[in-house]
Specification:
By secondary structure, this protein is mostly helical. It folds into 2 domains: 1-51, Arc Repressor Mutant, subunit A, CATH 1.10.10; 55-198, Tetracycline Repressor, domain 2, CATH 1.10.357.10. It has 9 helices and no strands. The chain has helices spanning 6-27, 34-41, 45-51, 55-78, 86-100, 106-121, 123-149, 159-179, 185-200.
Protein backbone atom coordinates (compact mmCIF):
# COMPACT_ATOMS: atom_id res chain seq x y z
CA UNK A 1 0.00 0.00 0.00
CA UNK A 2 1.50 3.38 -0.99
CA UNK A 3 2.41 5.69 1.87
CA UNK A 4 -0.02 8.55 2.42
CA UNK A 5 1.77 11.89 2.15
CA UNK A 6 1.84 14.44 4.96
CA UNK A 7 0.15 16.89 2.61
CA UNK A 8 -2.75 14.48 2.12
CA UNK A 9 -3.07 13.93 5.87
CA UNK A 10 -3.07 17.67 6.53
CA UNK A 11 -5.62 18.27 3.78
CA UNK A 12 -7.95 15.64 5.24
CA UNK A 13 -7.52 17.10 8.73
CA UNK A 14 -8.38 20.52 7.28
CA UNK A 15 -11.55 19.14 5.69
CA UNK A 16 -12.67 17.69 9.02
CA UNK A 17 -11.98 20.90 10.94
CA UNK A 18 -13.71 23.05 8.32
CA UNK A 19 -16.79 20.82 8.47
CA UNK A 20 -16.75 20.86 12.27
CA UNK A 21 -16.41 24.67 12.31
CA UNK A 22 -19.40 24.99 9.98
CA UNK A 23 -21.51 22.77 12.24
CA UNK A 24 -20.36 24.47 15.45
CA UNK A 25 -21.04 27.96 14.08
CA UNK A 26 -24.50 26.92 12.86
CA UNK A 27 -25.72 24.73 15.72
CA UNK A 28 -23.36 25.30 18.64
CA UNK A 29 -20.85 22.91 20.16
CA UNK A 30 -23.27 20.90 22.25
CA UNK A 31 -26.07 20.54 19.69
CA UNK A 32 -23.61 19.32 17.07
CA UNK A 33 -23.17 15.55 16.96
CA UNK A 34 -20.36 13.57 15.41
CA UNK A 35 -22.89 12.38 12.84
CA UNK A 36 -23.51 16.01 11.87
CA UNK A 37 -19.79 16.41 11.21
CA UNK A 38 -19.74 13.16 9.23
CA UNK A 39 -22.56 14.44 7.01
CA UNK A 40 -21.01 17.89 6.58
CA UNK A 41 -17.55 16.55 5.73
CA UNK A 42 -18.54 13.47 3.74
CA UNK A 43 -15.86 11.59 5.70
CA UNK A 44 -16.61 8.42 7.63
CA UNK A 45 -16.76 8.48 11.41
CA UNK A 46 -14.01 5.87 11.59
CA UNK A 47 -11.63 8.04 9.60
CA UNK A 48 -12.52 11.15 11.59
CA UNK A 49 -11.66 9.33 14.81
CA UNK A 50 -8.22 8.58 13.39
CA UNK A 51 -7.57 12.33 13.48
CA UNK A 52 -9.54 13.43 16.54
CA UNK A 53 -10.64 11.63 19.70
CA UNK A 54 -13.92 13.53 19.67
CA UNK A 55 -15.59 16.92 19.48
CA UNK A 56 -13.54 18.36 22.34
CA UNK A 57 -10.32 17.77 20.40
CA UNK A 58 -11.82 19.46 17.34
CA UNK A 59 -12.93 22.45 19.40
CA UNK A 60 -9.46 22.75 20.93
CA UNK A 61 -7.82 22.58 17.49
CA UNK A 62 -10.14 25.25 16.10
CA UNK A 63 -9.56 27.56 19.07
CA UNK A 64 -5.80 27.13 18.75
CA UNK A 65 -5.83 27.89 15.01
CA UNK A 66 -8.14 30.87 15.50
CA UNK A 67 -5.80 32.53 17.98
CA UNK A 68 -2.62 31.56 16.16
CA UNK A 69 -3.88 33.38 13.07
CA UNK A 70 -4.50 36.58 15.03
CA UNK A 71 -1.17 36.27 16.83
CA UNK A 72 0.55 36.03 13.45
CA UNK A 73 -1.12 39.28 12.38
CA UNK A 74 0.10 41.05 15.52
CA UNK A 75 3.64 39.71 15.10
CA UNK A 76 3.69 40.87 11.48
CA UNK A 77 2.47 44.30 12.54
CA UNK A 78 5.21 44.64 15.12
CA UNK A 79 7.94 43.74 12.63
CA UNK A 80 10.26 40.82 13.22
CA UNK A 81 13.50 42.69 12.60
CA UNK A 82 12.49 46.25 13.38
CA UNK A 83 11.71 48.24 16.48
CA UNK A 84 8.08 47.84 17.57
CA UNK A 85 5.99 50.27 15.52
CA UNK A 86 2.69 51.55 16.95
CA UNK A 87 1.56 53.00 13.61
CA UNK A 88 1.98 49.62 11.93
CA UNK A 89 0.26 47.88 14.84
CA UNK A 90 -2.71 50.26 14.69
CA UNK A 91 -2.97 49.86 10.90
CA UNK A 92 -3.21 46.08 11.18
CA UNK A 93 -5.63 46.45 14.10
CA UNK A 94 -7.95 48.66 12.04
CA UNK A 95 -7.85 46.12 9.21
CA UNK A 96 -8.81 43.45 11.74
CA UNK A 97 -11.80 45.55 12.80
CA UNK A 98 -12.80 46.02 9.15
CA UNK A 99 -12.69 42.26 8.61
CA UNK A 100 -15.42 41.83 11.22
CA UNK A 101 -17.90 43.54 8.91
CA UNK A 102 -17.21 41.39 5.86
CA UNK A 103 -19.89 38.82 4.94
CA UNK A 104 -17.33 36.05 4.56
CA UNK A 105 -16.40 36.35 8.25
CA UNK A 106 -19.94 35.68 9.52
CA UNK A 107 -19.14 32.06 10.36
CA UNK A 108 -16.02 33.13 12.26
CA UNK A 109 -18.11 35.57 14.30
CA UNK A 110 -20.62 32.93 15.32
CA UNK A 111 -17.85 30.46 16.03
CA UNK A 112 -16.05 33.04 18.15
CA UNK A 113 -19.13 33.56 20.31
CA UNK A 114 -19.45 29.81 20.76
CA UNK A 115 -15.83 29.67 21.90
CA UNK A 116 -16.34 32.46 24.43
CA UNK A 117 -19.39 30.71 25.86
CA UNK A 118 -17.46 27.44 26.09
CA UNK A 119 -14.65 29.05 28.10
CA UNK A 120 -17.07 29.43 31.00
CA UNK A 121 -17.78 25.72 31.26
CA UNK A 122 -14.65 24.00 29.92
CA UNK A 123 -11.29 24.66 31.63
CA UNK A 124 -9.30 23.30 28.68
CA UNK A 125 -10.93 25.71 26.24
CA UNK A 126 -10.62 28.59 28.72
CA UNK A 127 -6.89 27.91 29.06
CA UNK A 128 -6.42 27.80 25.29
CA UNK A 129 -8.43 30.99 24.80
CA UNK A 130 -6.56 32.81 27.56
CA UNK A 131 -3.24 31.73 26.09
CA UNK A 132 -4.40 32.82 22.66
CA UNK A 133 -5.31 36.29 23.93
CA UNK A 134 -2.46 36.78 26.39
CA UNK A 135 0.27 36.39 23.76
CA UNK A 136 -0.99 39.06 21.34
CA UNK A 137 -1.95 41.30 24.27
CA UNK A 138 1.59 41.16 25.65
CA UNK A 139 3.06 41.80 22.19
CA UNK A 140 0.75 44.77 21.63
CA UNK A 141 1.56 46.14 25.08
CA UNK A 142 5.29 45.94 24.33
CA UNK A 143 4.79 47.91 21.11
CA UNK A 144 2.66 50.52 22.88
CA UNK A 145 5.21 50.81 25.70
CA UNK A 146 8.05 51.29 23.21
CA UNK A 147 6.08 53.94 21.31
CA UNK A 148 5.44 55.83 24.55
CA UNK A 149 9.14 55.70 25.43
CA UNK A 150 9.96 57.19 22.02
CA UNK A 151 7.42 59.98 22.40
CA UNK A 152 4.92 58.63 19.87
CA UNK A 153 2.26 57.95 22.51
CA UNK A 154 1.55 59.64 25.87
CA UNK A 155 4.21 58.60 28.38
CA UNK A 156 1.61 58.12 31.13
CA UNK A 157 -0.35 55.60 29.03
CA UNK A 158 -0.63 52.22 30.76
CA UNK A 159 0.49 49.93 27.93
CA UNK A 160 -1.05 46.73 29.28
CA UNK A 161 -4.37 48.39 30.07
CA UNK A 162 -4.49 50.02 26.64
CA UNK A 163 -3.75 46.69 24.94
CA UNK A 164 -6.68 45.22 26.86
CA UNK A 165 -8.88 48.09 25.65
CA UNK A 166 -7.95 47.34 22.03
CA UNK A 167 -8.87 43.69 22.53
CA UNK A 168 -12.12 44.63 24.26
CA UNK A 169 -13.11 46.92 21.37
CA UNK A 170 -12.45 44.11 18.88
CA UNK A 171 -14.41 41.58 20.94
CA UNK A 172 -17.24 44.06 21.45
CA UNK A 173 -17.48 44.74 17.73
CA UNK A 174 -17.62 41.00 17.06
CA UNK A 175 -20.44 40.57 19.57
CA UNK A 176 -22.47 43.53 18.30
CA UNK A 177 -22.01 42.52 14.66
CA UNK A 178 -23.13 38.95 15.39
CA UNK A 179 -26.51 39.96 16.81
CA UNK A 180 -27.15 43.45 15.40
CA UNK A 181 -27.28 43.78 11.62
CA UNK A 182 -27.55 47.58 11.87
CA UNK A 183 -23.92 47.97 13.00
CA UNK A 184 -22.12 50.31 10.60
CA UNK A 185 -18.65 48.77 10.42
CA UNK A 186 -17.14 51.62 8.41
CA UNK A 187 -18.38 54.24 10.87
CA UNK A 188 -17.18 52.16 13.81
CA UNK A 189 -13.69 51.77 12.35
CA UNK A 190 -13.50 55.48 11.50
CA UNK A 191 -14.34 56.36 15.11
CA UNK A 192 -11.63 54.03 16.41
CA UNK A 193 -9.15 55.40 13.87
CA UNK A 194 -9.93 58.97 14.95
CA UNK A 195 -9.26 58.02 18.56
CA UNK A 196 -5.95 56.32 17.75
CA UNK A 197 -4.88 59.21 15.54
CA UNK A 198 -5.59 61.67 18.34
CA UNK A 199 -3.31 59.66 20.61
CA UNK A 200 -0.43 59.52 18.15
CA UNK A 201 -0.73 63.17 17.06
CA UNK A 202 -1.23 64.74 20.44
Amino acid sequence: MPKVSDAHLQARRREILDAAATCFARDGFHRTSMQDIVRESGISAGLIYRYFAGKDDMIAAIVTEWHEHRATLIDAARGAEQAPDADRLFSVYLDLLRSVGRPETAQDLHLGLQVWAETIRTPRIRELARHGVDGPRAAAAETIRSAAQHGKLPTHLDADAFARILIAVYQGLMLQTAWDDTVDNEAFVRAVETTLTALTRR
